[in-house]
Amino acid sequence: MEDSMHNIKLKTERLLLRSLTVADANEVFEWVSDERVSRYMVYTTYTSINQVREWLAFVEKDTSTYHFGFERLSDGKLIGSGDIGTAEKNGYWGFGYNLCYDCWGKGYATEAAKAMIEFARKNLGATHFSSSHAEPNIASGHVMEKCGLHFVGYGEFKKLDGSCKMKSADYEGVF
Ligand SMILES: CC(C)(COP(=O)(O)OP(=O)(O)OC[C@H]1O[C@@H](n2cnc3c(N)ncnc32)[C@H](O)[C@@H]1OP(=O)(O)O)[C@@H](O)C(=O)NCCC(=O)NCCS
């Protein structure tokens, strides 16, 4: 199970979703060190490649969540990453995504999120999905809606280090 879970490849029109490894650290650093990208993510902005290596070493072993790097098919560049896994809320699958700043606004997040949802539906028996975004992060809400989820209410967005707390907009979908 562990090996198969880390070797999944999902192809979309413009992207290859594939597992992340420590060897991706330099490319991943490009967006996780960018405050424009990390602002509404739960992680703290990364300041060194070593921190990214540590996170990727965790990802390589993590069996609780499916992590994917989003590789652009046209040039092989890693442009972002995301994950999908069973959420805290019983029976729901949660997902997330982030992209390097230069790649925003081109539909990539929607393309990748739809592929992760389809993978979970077809291969993992997932039917109930949920996700949420910090309230001002409207683009992410659009991605969730384009994936077929709908707004269900407000909750709380918290960075893992406690440095930021604000309202979240919560979404669900049953497919
Ligand atoms: C959120 C994020 C993943 C969106 O990625 P993307 O590839 O640009 O998303 P898409 O192009 O698939 O769709 C974005 C949608 O939001 C819309 N949008 C973009 N910026 C917007 C803004 N400031 N206000 C309102 N809508 C906006 C786009 O028009 C598009 O909707 P449309 O197709 O209906 O026009 C990207 O901005 C990102 O990586 N942000 C930083 C990390 C992050 O916040 N991740 C989500 C955490 S919940």
Automatic annotation (TrEMBL):
Pfam families hit by this protein: Acetyltransf_3 (PF13302)
Report domain N-acetyltransferase positions: 15-171
Which SUPFAM superfamilies would you find in this protein's record? Acyl-CoA N-acyltransferases (Nat)
Transmembrane feature ranges: none
User: Which molecular function term from Gene Ontology is one that the record holds?
Assistant: acyltransferase activity, transferring groups other than amino-acyl groups
The record, for PANTHER family, names: GNAT FAMILY, PUTATIVE (AFU_ORTHOLOGUE AFUA_3G00765)-RELATED-RELATED, N-ACETYLTRANSFERASE DOMAIN-CONTAINING PROTEIN
Q: What is this protein called?
A: N-acetyltransferase
Q: Which organism is it from?
A: Parablautia muri
